[in-house]
Design goal:
globular; single chain
């Protein structure tokens, strides 16, 4: 129990240390150059994608209005609602679907299904981003890069890909809009979004976060892990195990992604320094 608690504290500490605020503001220069090439498609298409017809069309419009437009409404309040509703929906469904899973495993399973990586994939997969009204000049390129990079990670990147936050916020906003429009029915929300959220991550497909996994592997072998932060100077992290260099990861824009990539690189390399006979016992 003590070892597990220490592991959780080490992992949490390493991650919390590296949290940085996402830069959601595009440069003034790029904003001036941004010109909307066409009017967004009709939101009627969104109702077709969702398989849900809104009684209050204003909620649908609000869900697809980004704060960058500077209008009197934005999807921020619906995002707030949708975030809570999505967590509640998954909590309910998982409670009944997995009666033998511990609260800790259920929490990790839920987190993997409702985080920014997973939700942004929903927006891209179903083309919901095409309807978002915004004035963020860099967003289209960020979406393009995200769409390309996630091909390497069909289900989830576990923190190794930069996620356009606006996409995850959009999906939460739509969830919030459906919840309000349906008179607060979580059953209707689940009916609408269960298909859209597929493939849902299940216990057998749940992957351990690379930082957590690295600590687990090393703890079993009584090896000391050390992350060296060179992000400000070189946008990278180096990983040492028992003072031996074993991995590196970099990311220009996101410090925590650089950390995650370093941990993954270390995991890929650590087997090379372990005895072959012990590899299979970890």
């Amino acid at each position: 129990m003590t070892a597990t608690k220490n592991l959780e504290q080490e992992t949490t500490g390493a991650l919390q240390e590296l949290r940085v605020n996402e830069n959601t503001n595009d440069s003034p220069e790029s904003t001036r150059k941004f010109i909307e090439s066409s009017t967004p498609p009709s939101l009627d298409e969104v109702e077709t994608i969702l398989g849900y017809e809104f009684k209050n069309k204003q909620l649908l419009e609000e869900a697809f209005t980004h704060a960058s437009l500077g209008e009197s409404i934005s999807n921020e309040r619906l995002e707030y609602v949708g975030d809570s509703v999505l967590n509640l929906v998954f909590t309910k469904e998982q409670y009944f679907e997995y009666p033998n899973l511990s609260p800790g495993t259920l929490t990790r399973l839920r987190a993997a299904n409702v985080d920014s990586d997973k939700l942004a994939r929903v927006a891209v997969k179903h083309g919901l981003h095409r309807f978002l009204r915004h004035k963020k000049p860099l967003l289209e390129e960020q979406i393009r890069q995200f769409s390309e990079k996630i091909r390497r990670y069909p289900l989830h990147s576990n923190g190794q890909v930069e996620v356009p936050k606006a996409l995850a916020d959009l999906v939460e906003s739509i969830i919030g809009a459906v919840f309000i429009d349906s008179n607060s029915s979580i059953d209707i929300v689940w009916k609408v979004f269960k298909y859209l959220l597929e493939p849902i991550i299940r216990p057998e497909t749940l992957k351990i976060h690379p930082v957590t996994q690295l600590y687990e592997v090393c703890q079993k072998r009584n090896l000391k892990v050390k992350f060296v932060d060179s992000w400000r100077e070189e946008t990278s992290f180096d990983v040492f195990v028992d003072n031996q260099f074993i991995g590196r990861g970099s990311c220009r824009d996101k410090k925590d992604i650089a950390l995650n990539r370093a941990a993954k690189d270390a995991l890929d390399n650590i087997w090379k320094i372990l005895d072959a006979k012990d590899v299979h016992s970890i």
